[in-house]
Specification:
By secondary structure, the protein is mainly beta. It is built from 1 helix and 10 strands.
Length: 167
Amino acid sequence: MSTKDRKAAESAWKMFHKRNEVDGSTKLEGDIWPQAWAYAGRCVTTYYASDKWQRDRKFFERYYHDHDKDTGIWLPKGSEKWLDAKHTVPDFKIPGSVAILGYTLSFDIIQHDSKALHAKKGKVIPEQGSLLVVGPTKKHIFVVENGRIVAMVWGPKMKVEARGIVG
């Protein structure tokens, strides 16, 4: 992991959480990234819990962010038969460090073929309680579940700012 990546992740964490101390950046080490991504569909809303505005770091508030219409969600290729592997994957450099935004509660998505999403056994998108993280560029949000990257949310106007997720 580069020092530049670590410092950028720490800076993103401080900015998002409005704190000077850093206890919410983490290294991404080992073989945790999917070999390839496939498009699941439009990401309409991201629901998450964060201690962003809390003085006592034991308390979390629930947030939701309604995304712009061109924001999508990608899952590991091959994880579901219905995924669109032909859809263009957004260009990004795999970060060595990320800033923790909070914990995933759920996502509202519209499946790529415009049908309503039907979860197989209730689990197509990441489990509630998975880490919601952002890379140093603050342009790609990733979900870390059981030590692996299991989803990516991206849109051309989406970014993480001090006020929260934008776009």
